[in-house]
Design brief:
The chain is mainly beta. The protein is 5% helix and 41% strand.
């Protein structure tokens, strides 16, 4: 049996027990009769939002002998909730396969454990399986989401890499750790929600200017060839994603200085340097990861 959901919306559905939007299960729970055959659920271009389950699987509850559930092609599972496990998706322990592939997104769901995905493990079966794409692939630069990685809520370890447990060897409560973009940089009396937006504004004004950070910024930015910029870290951190934090094709001077009050006072609000809990000024930082060259700063021209 195969079910394909394409370009659908599942919103505000409720289940008293399991599977707020969708409950899917194979025909049998008898381990002696299980084969690799079973229902296949393909979710494409579909949004699941605002669904809830009293127990498990706010959007999807995948029970036993489900050969494959695949979420792909601009499908989004967000804003769902479960009373116990798997705010977004609950993956059962018995011959159950769940895949989040390219184009799919799971984030911002709620549960007591496994905010986004909960993978159940039972020692007598050991046949629950999950595969999740790397987190940096989930969001384009146009969205106000900063991804930190897949967080295992039990071990409190985070990774931006793809996750694959075939099979799972323990219960896996997984959530996408992320934050939304916020006001993080000032240029010429204007606040910008990203450093790249501020750089683009400098270039639009002729290429010369000073950009001052007013918050920790999580993005990879590019100093364009026409730019001649002073970047003042102001005690904050510029943290890159899966590429260099700062790619330089033009000219840049990186400093970590206290700006003048005039530079950081806008509409009566003053954005001072970052301090710790004791009021001591922090040191500005650039940090990043690159699979090839220049994790922090990658100078390619200028």
């Amino acid at each position: 049996m195969q079910v394909t959901l394409k370009n659908c919306d599942f919103k505000s559905n409720r289940a008293a027990a399991n599977g707020g939007a969708i409950y899917v299960s194979g025909a049998t729970s008898d381990a002696s009769t299980v084969t690799t055959e079973g229902p296949v659920l393909s979710i494409q271009g579909t949004k699941m939002e605002g669904n809830s389950a009293g127990t498990n699987g706010g959007a999807i509850y995948q029970y036993r002998r489900v050969y494959q559930t695949v979420v792909s092609d601009d499908s989004v599972i967000t804003g769902n909730s479960a009373g116990s496990f798997g705010g977004g998706v609950f993956v059962g322990s018995f011959k159950s396969f769940f895949t989040l592939s390219e184009g799919g997104k799971i984030y911002g769901n709620k549960a007591n454990l496994g905010q986004d995905v909960y993978v159940e493990y039972e020692g007598k079966y050991r046949t629950s399986n999950v595969s999740l794409i790397d987190t940096q692939s989930m969001f384009s630069g146009e969205e106000n989401i900063v991804v930190k990685g897949w967080l295992n809520e039990t071990t409190e370890k985070t990774t931006k890499l793809a996750l694959e447990y075939i099979p799972a060897t323990a219960n896996l409560p997984i959530t996408l750790s992320y934050s939304e973009k916020k006001n993080c940089a000032i240029y010429n009396g204007t606040i910008y929600k990203s450093v790249q937006d501020a750089i683009d504004a400098v270039c639009a004004d002729g290429g010369q200017g000073t950009i001052t950070l007013i918050a920790d910024c999580y993005e990879s930015v590019n100093i364009l060839s026409e730019a001649d910029i002073i970047l003042n870290l102001n005690g904050y951190t510029l943290q890159g994603g899966a590429t260099s934090a700062l790619t330089v094709n033009g000219k840049v001077k990186i400093v970590d200085e206290n700006p003048t009050l005039t530079e950081v006072t806008i509409d009566g609000a003053t954005y001072l340097s970052k301090t710790d809990e004791s009021g001591n000024r922090m040191t500005g930082t650039i940090t990043g990861v690159s699979a090839v060259t220049g994790g922090g700063v990658n100078v390619t021209g200028g």
